[in-house]
């Protein structure tokens, strides 16, 4: 099979060309799957250091299949979004390999599991613990936005703990639908992506307008504030132990999100301060221009 000549983001920065994956790393057990990707433990043969290896398809650049071209663009966009990221609350990319129409991303290994598992096991967190988690999330999001990256799929599943049960070290992971670009690009995004319970109203609206518009000029996009809505949902779930928007019917769930109607009706909220509820309310604002920024939150 002919070698993939790219092009690759930033001229192939962090792309290993001097060795094959199997010569550098020993792949072990699968620790996660999603879509067309899987994550395995990867041990550096030289220094015995363990990492995480995420692999996914990378179809040829000259493929005649639209689906394959889109899959390639998505994989390269994820790499582009992660290049250069270096922050205590963001999962970093060490290097990557391209072999046999697949790409292998070598990242730091976090053994604490998803924050979703912690919420499901623990139930609602105290305000003090929720604050510890949320401050780390805000620092990570503020950093990402400062370097021109919008995550677009922030959720409890994509927040990882370094050690099980230890909320003092949390990192944002999975940049599969993240967007990297200039302020002009990041304030005119139109792709509908994210998870229904966490997706911002303006992202849903962008999809409806795209379906109805005759040209791209008719479309209004959305911006980085979509991440802050997702953070509001996360904070609600940390304090309440359940999502602010829920319906068995996806269309009705998305309608509820668009309206931005939620309540602090469960008895669990009686123990939560008005300041914490006010913060949630100022993040779950339908108008993105009136939503809090990471610095304000």
UniProtKB/TrEMBL annotation:
Alphabetic keyword roster: ATP-binding, Kinase, Nucleotide-binding, Serine/threonine-protein kinase, Transferase
One Pfam family from the record: Pkinase
Positions that bind ATP: 54
Domain Protein kinase: from-to ranges: 25-297
Molecular function per GO: ATP binding; protein serine/threonine kinase activity
Record PANTHER family: SERINE/THREONINE-PROTEIN KINASE
Family indicated by similarity: Belongs to the protein kinase superfamily.
Protein name: Protein kinase domain-containing protein
Annotated source species: Chlorella variabilis
